[in-house]
Amino acid sequence: MKAFLNGLLVLLSSTWIGHAPAAEVAGVRLEEKAKVGNAELALNGAGLRTKVFFKVYVIGLYLPTKAVTSAEVLSQKGSKRAHLALVRDVGPEDFSDALIDGLKNNSSEAEFAAMKPRIDQFRQAIVAAGEVKSGSVVHLDYLPETGTRLAIGGKQLGKDIPGEDFYNALLRIWIGDKPIQDNLKEALLGKPQ
Predict the structure, then answer these.
(1) Total Cβ atoms within 10 A of residue 156
(2) What is the dihedral of CA 98, 60, 113, 146, to 10 degrees?
(3) How far is residue 147's CA from residue 160's CA, in Å, rounded to a whole number?
(4) In this model, does residue 9 exceed pLDDT 80?
(5) What CATH number does residue 62 fall under?
(6) Which domain covers residue 132, as residue numbers?
């Protein structure tokens, strides 16, 4: 009987360890894994975007392999995901302008100019979506075959935007040399807060 109970305890504990609880930031739960295309990605880190004193969104970064530096994140090949869970309503112009400002701050003039048509395509897709309500989930996915895919509430907006350079420019908004928020960069790179 003792051997049976020990075996049951080992089975139960291995089942518990195999199903790690999701991360939680500001009351928003993030899954430890995400499927993007045919790839299963792991949550690298997550944090809260604030502006002044307002909570705006929780963001989780999903990658094929854990990374602790921006260079490691940006050099990874394969699918990636930035998962944004809004914790307040955001107007489409404010949302797109904030992202484009982040792109501008983390790109050279030449890089920004080269991406301008794709940035315009990205902005049009966001603006067409209208106000993004609190509780909405925005996915910025990179699919190597087609490029950057924007989806809000599981619905794809616009066409995929080609080029890994564009997706990496988006990621630099949060993890670049001039991140939108320093402690958010640290959180996305999995560093303790």
Answers:
(1) 13
(2) -130
(3) 6
(4) no
(5) 3.50.70.10
(6) 22-188
